């Protein structure tokens, strides 16, 4: 990648297959392939072809895709290398809703692609907002039924706007799991994350704003304005009192009354994202606000992000769980290469970027032990996630002040786009 030309020359590399550490797996298994942008939900029975982010407009598109897939299957012996590219076609915008004008699809194509929806079908976009560490990612995972967003007990774990798709027979909710709203922006990274939060809220049909029920009630108008901005037409907004399992029922009732009285929202619902309590109430509220219309995506799709994105997120989660203080916040994880190998383990090459050599030394640890532990824990979860064996190679490099490098941040997905190759 061009932006990485200034990286320090020294590099530490550890292949993880040599280390017999046993780490508790935390990711739910998913089934999908390396040749599609979409993640597919194994719990839904709808069978769809692999498709691009926009709906097919003609039968010729379907035929062309089928021929392309057949050619790929005949060439399985050729290993595919996935690398960074500056080509705009290698990025997918998360700021624009896909076209759901399906007028040119006949009944067979509509059913085959999973768009078979009646007149009462509802669909739309939902933004999850709130301060850091209030449980937005846990709620998103509960609603989708799969772990897509990484979760730790440290604030600001989520950096990207993660698109999660929750579908039923008569609805489709496209959830934006966003970074925690920051009132103080210390780096360009913080500013770009907040731009993504506001963009998600502007594009949303309704907004879920989460607060921590275990903490003292506080007015959220300023924080809500930070997240939504000041749109002329404010979307319907639900305030969710999360973590109600940490307080007594009497306290829940008092805080519910306080938030209802002192916040400018449409409704307040107490939930426990950790245990799933109240999640159905949240879904019902969302469905009451979404417009009628067909699905944006086939019904067995659960995310538009490619698997390389989730591989990087898994590794970042392990960094948050293993290291303390500033280390998790100065680390950027990039997947440099992803090779699918039919007769061997898939090969994944990853780099961890830090800002100073002293941070690199901490990540690697004495005699490389810290990096070995991190790599093994990450590999086990990556294998659970991909449902296949992988050879994971991790390098640690230094890129000074990467959190202030706007060009690098945009290329790394903080500008509202994600790489799809």
TrEMBL record:
Residues 323-400 form the KH type-2 domain. Keywords: GTP-binding, Nucleotide-binding, RNA-binding. Residues 67-89 have a biased composition (Acidic residues). SUPFAM superfamilies: P-loop containing nucleoside triphosphate hydrolases, Prokaryotic type KH domain (KH-domain type II). One of its GO terms (cellular component) is chloroplast nucleoid. InterPro entries: G_ERA_dom, GTP-bd, GTPase_Era-like, KH_dom-like_a/b, KH_dom_type_2, KH_sf_prok-type, P-loop_NTPase, Small_GTP-bd. Residues 130-137 are annotated as: G1. Its main location: plastid. GO terms for biological process: ribosomal small subunit assembly. Pfam families: KH_2 (PF07650), MMR_HSR1 (PF01926). Residues 156-160 are annotated as: G2. Residues 242-245 are annotated as: G4. Residues 67-95 are annotated as: Disordered. Residues 177-180 are annotated as: G3. Residues 271-273 are annotated as: G5. GO terms for molecular function: GTP binding; ribosomal small subunit binding; rRNA binding. Residues 122-292 form the Era-type G domain. CDD domains: Era, KH-II_Era. It is found in: Plastid, Chloroplast stroma, Chloroplast nucleoid. It comes from the Eukaryota. Nuclear genome-encoded probable GTPase involved in ribosome biogenesis in chloroplasts. Plays a role in 16S rRNA maturation in plastids and may contribute to the assembly of the small (30S) ribosomal subunit. Belongs to the TRAFAC class TrmE-Era-EngA-EngB-Septin-like GTPase superfamily. Era GTPase family. HAMAP family: GTPase_Era. This is GTP-binding protein Era. It comes from Vicia faba.
């Amino acid at each position: 990648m061009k932006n990485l030309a200034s990286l320090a020359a020294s590099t530490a590399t550890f292949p993880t297959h040599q280390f017999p550490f046993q780490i508790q797996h935390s990711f739910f298994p998913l089934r999908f392939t390396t040749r599609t942008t979409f993640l597919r939900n194994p719990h839904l029975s709808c069978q769809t072809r692999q498709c691009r982010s926009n709906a097919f407009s003609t039968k010729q598109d379907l035929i062309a895709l089928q021929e392309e897939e057949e050619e790929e299957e005949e060439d399985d012996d050729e290993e595919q290398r996935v690398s960074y590219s500056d080509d705009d076609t290698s990025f997918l915008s998360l700021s624009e809703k896909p076209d759901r004008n399906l007028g040119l699809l006949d009944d067979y194509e509509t059913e085959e692609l999973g768009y078979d929806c009646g007149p009462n079908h509802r669909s739309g976009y939902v933004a999850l907002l709130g301060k850091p560490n209030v449980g937005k990612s846990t709620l998103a995972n509960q609603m989708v039924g799969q772990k897509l967003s990484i979760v730790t007990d440290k604030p600001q774990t989520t950096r990207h706007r993660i698109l999660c798709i929750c579908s039923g027979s008569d609805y489709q909710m496209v959830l934006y799991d966003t970074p925690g709203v920051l009132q103080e922006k210390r780096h360009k990274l913080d500013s770009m994350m907040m731009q993504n939060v506001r963009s998600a809220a502007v594009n949303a049909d309704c907004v879920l704003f989460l607060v921590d029920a275990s903490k003292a009630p506080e007015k959220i108008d300023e924080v809500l304005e930070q997240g939504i901005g000041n749109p002329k037409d404010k979307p319907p907004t639900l305030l969710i009192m999360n973590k109600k399992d940490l307080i007594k029922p009497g306290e829940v009732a008092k805080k519910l009354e306080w938030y209802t009285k002192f916040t400018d929202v449409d409704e307040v619902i107490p939930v426990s994202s950790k245990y799933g309590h109240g999640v159905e109430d949240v879904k019902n509220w969302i469905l009451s606000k979404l417009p009628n219309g067909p699905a944006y995506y086939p019904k067995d799709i659960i995310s538009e992000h490619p698997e390389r994105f989730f591989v990087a997120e898994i590794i970042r989660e392990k960094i948050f769980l293993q290291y303390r203080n500033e280390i998790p916040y100065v680390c950027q994880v990039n997947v440099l290469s992803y090779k699918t190998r039919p007769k061997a383990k898939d090969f994944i090459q990853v780099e961890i970027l830090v800002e100073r050599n002293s941070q690199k030394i901490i990540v690697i640890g004495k005699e490389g032990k810290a990096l070995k532990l991190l790599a093994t824990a990450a590999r086990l979860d990556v294998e659970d996630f991909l449902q296949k064996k992988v050879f994971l190679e991790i390098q640690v490099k230094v890129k000074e002040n990467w959190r202030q490098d706007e060009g690098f941040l945009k290329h790394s997905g903080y500008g509202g786009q994600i790489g799809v190759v």
